[in-house]
Target: Glutamine--fructose-6-phosphate aminotransferase [isomerizing]
Amino acid sequence: SRVEKSGYKHFMAKEIAEQPTVLGEAVDHYISKDGKGVSFAAEGLDFTQFDRITMVACGTAFYACLTAKYWFEQLARLPVEVDIASEFRYREPPVAPRTLAIFVSQSGETADTLAALRYMEGKAAKILSVVNVPESSIARESDVALPILAGIEVGVASTKAFTCQLNVLALLALNAAHARGEISDAALGDHLAALRNLPGLMNHALGASDTIEALSRELAKAQDILFLGRGAMYPIALEGALKLKEISYIHAEGYASGELKHGPIALIDENVPVIVMAPRDALFDKTVSNMQEVMARGGKVLLITDAEGAKQAGDDVWRSVILPEIPDLLAPILYAIPAQLLAYHTAVAKGTDVDQPRNLAKSVTVE
Ligand code: G6P
Model:
């Protein structure tokens, strides 16, 4: 079936806008009818059988894995190692017994990820893949393949596949936490209720598109842009920088906020916008103090936070994007949306080929 742009200027814009719908459908698909439970028993997944997780992917899917590491470790107390497929496969790491190997891939055809999967198969690890294409090589060669249900993604820069990967990984982490006795029935129910509520909040975030379009016209003049985030927002900073460089060709880097002092602060002046992804979580105050270090050196801060966060951050920030309040677990999924919109509108302002950026392929099936 041919996929159409249905009135949007680019597939990327359409795919960004589709996220509340496809993610909401995927949530309904995976959680029980009463909305209170999530189980992968029918697929043969029992998290009490594992002592550790190894996650492997490339590109945007790698950043989904980095985000999920925070969830599996914090909620389920399962140690997680995350690696880039092209590094993992040639490093040939030792594999401990009771390891679950998780491979995340939109296409299910990325050559390095497939090779890493085959390596882990040879080590007798249980192989779980999180894919968008259920008939793909990676899905077929897995013990368990979970579809993310994003629908066909055409834009080379991944958007809805990323948030739908995060959705399935969050459900897995919640299931793992519950199965391992780390969270109660009631806590699981609360998390799942929040997840069912997420599409509404994502719609709210999409409402920031006009604000972001206006400030993106200014970002389009920059040569370098930094993204900062802490905790599970650190991978979202990395993803924001990747998205921006892929389609606008502006040099961008994501950093853990706490690393600011260890290098990137040397770059700060009035020409380097610093985009701070800061939901009001336990680390918010630390991020605000990193932000003040940037502003004290003349840096222009674009703060992405909620209304109360913006109030606490004061008047010195260059621009703010206000998102609804969100439970900590789901903040990375919600904050991915302004990161995508920033990349999109900046690229449109620069007049680049948003859906087909130079030199990039949707799926890298050769080394
Ligand atoms: C390419 C695409 C990215 C994608 C990466 C991994 O670089 O341009 O959008 O994140 O491959 O692809 P996969 O299909 O394995 O998720």
Observations:
- Strands lie at 52-57, 80-84, 99-105, 126-131, 144-147, 224-229, 251-256, 273-277, 300-306, 319-323.
- The radius of gyration is 20 Å.
